[in-house]
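Researcher: Re-running this chain for the archive, since the previous output was lost when a drive failed. Same request as before.
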Amino acid sequence: MSAPEHLPLAHDRFQRVDRAIFVRRVVADCLSHRCTQLANDGAALATPRPLLEACCQYGADVDLGERNAILDHRADIAQLLVPAARLVPWFGTEVEDDPDFPSGHNVRTATFEGGCVFLAHDRRGCAVHRASLKHGWDLNGVKPNICRLFPLSYAEETICISDDYTDYDCADAPGAPTLYRVARDTLGNIFGAALVAALDTAEAAAAASPRAKLVHLRARPDAQP
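Model: Regenerated structure tokens:
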């Protein structure tokens, strides 16, 4: 992607937002989409690679509080995993310092057979998320925020787009809503109504700009002629 153009935000924590979140698109419902990986770290693949939940193949950074909450629900989550994935360590042992995480630290989820360990069931959807639906507990503070927001992300004082957003064909899919509209409720749930209000103002400013047209949509590999 090209260098981001930022808009200011009137918010205590986040001071700016990548304007592209208001004009780029993404599939709203992952489970209705058959994922295809188009690139790896921005380098186009010679042949697009069908891969369910492609964005989950590397695992994710998890706040220490989220890790502990996942382990508190271990029995419910394990029911959805294949037997071998129940037995392997679910998290790495290296702890990174990062002030963007609530605890100031994060660890990474393990990978298992080519994907995040929490995809080790039928390769559709996160086992943490599905366990919360099955057993009726709140996923807030349990399912990692970084996963809930993808392909949006945040760093320091900025709401931004994940680096690998355009590696997958869910990016700029025909008829899809904007990144912001897909993530708006989740942003409010995680960071509060004040951030949504600030982003709504920035969205209106982006719409009023002469550069506000949505991006040109590329043809998807499975598009019909």
